[in-house]
Fold this sequence. Notes:
By secondary structure, this protein is α/β, with parallel strands linked by helices. It has 2 domains: 8-179, 3-Layer(aba) Sandwich (Rossmann fold), CATH 3.40.50; 196-366, inorganic pyrophosphatase (n-terminal core), CATH 3.90.1640.10. It contains 12 helices and 12 strands. The chain has helices at residues 8-16, 19-27, 45-57, 73-84, 96-104, 138-151, 164-173, 181-210, 227-242, 258-266, 336-346, 353-366, and strands spanning 66-69, 89-93, 108-111, 130-133, 156-160, 177-179, 216-221, 246-251, 271-273, 287-291, 310-313, 326-329. A 6-stranded parallel beta sheet has the order 3-2-1-4-5-6, sandwiched between helices. A 6-stranded parallel beta sheet has the order 9-8-7-10-11-12, covered by helices on one side. Helix 4 (73-84) links the parallel strand 1 and strand 2. The longest helix is centred in the middle third of the chain and has 30 residues, at 181-210. The two termini are 32 Å apart. The relative contact order is 0.09. Mean pLDDT is 83; it is low at 1-58.
Amino acid sequence: MASRNLSAPYIVDRIMYDERLVIMAKSAYTLQTSNIRGGLSITDSKKTSDSHKSATNGDKKLQSPYLVIGSGNIGSAVARELVNRNKTVVLIDRDAGKVETLKEQEFEAIVGDLNDPGLLDPIDIKSVEVALILSSDVSANENAIITIKQASEGIQVIARAPNSIAKTKLIEAGADSVIMPPRVVSDATLRILDRVESARHASNVLNILRSIGKGKLAIVVHDNPDPDAMSSAFALKTIAASVDIESEMLYRGEIGHQENKAFINLLQIDMCKLDEQKAHYLEDFKKIALIDCSMPGENNLLPKDSDVTIIIDHHPAEMKEVHAEYIDIRPNAGATATIMTKYLQELDIPISKDLATALLYGIRTDTLGFKRNANPI
């Protein structure tokens, strides 16, 4: 299979932020090195042995688009993940015993010292696209970067650093990207925490919706609603429909801008306009959800003393003044549509093309074209 030419940012995105890798990276701080379990076959055992023997004898150099230099827990974890993605990898480590262990596990591995200018002698340098230098020795990593860049400026180099000072040093040496395992672990932990919280929130909302039974849910948005409010209401209506709960999306004021009017018409978002003369209409609903705002009577059609069941918003609020059976206010979210999208994902509810388009547009408008508080969903 022809290898894919991947840039350093792509590798960082696919490796640095892969949670399975992060968990393995974290183990580097708690486990002994050379913790190799199970076999992953890159080539068959005979081919691996023969190619290594040929390279050692100088008859034939090893060819691989990926080099992993330093085979501690992080290096081994990265190599395993690359193999799982059907990539060809050669590992280089100065510990001969560790190299033998890797070869027993059918990894392509050779002995090499990061401080040795001849580090790449056994490698066909023209075949290398990306080198991942993952030892814990900053000085050795720096020397390896220099050696690789001298051999070929075209090789993308990703190096490991313990802190920002070392990161700067490695970038100055020529690294294209630098990862810091403690930061990777921290970021991944927070992402996992967000996912756990989103799953809990989604489950709570669904349970509340189920409790409505044969009643109706009023989904109220702020006055003169924007795409974020309308798409978020549309998402909650979809979630309610998934458990056979009838609902209506209500607003007061005007839907301004021609693009917003086209937005609801093209995507068939059925918004019901109410005013003070029709306030009694709310009596037809068993429960009320307030979306993209958090205070009844403040920029929305609800009376201030309304009994609200669900509040979902991304605007900052004085929490002691917010009252509802269920509250999910996340000021760090760029849009309420972001929160609703996560609900749909966690609940595994199919998202129609119209809803997906609406949510994307809602997020785009409230994040100023994904420039403000835009987070991966």
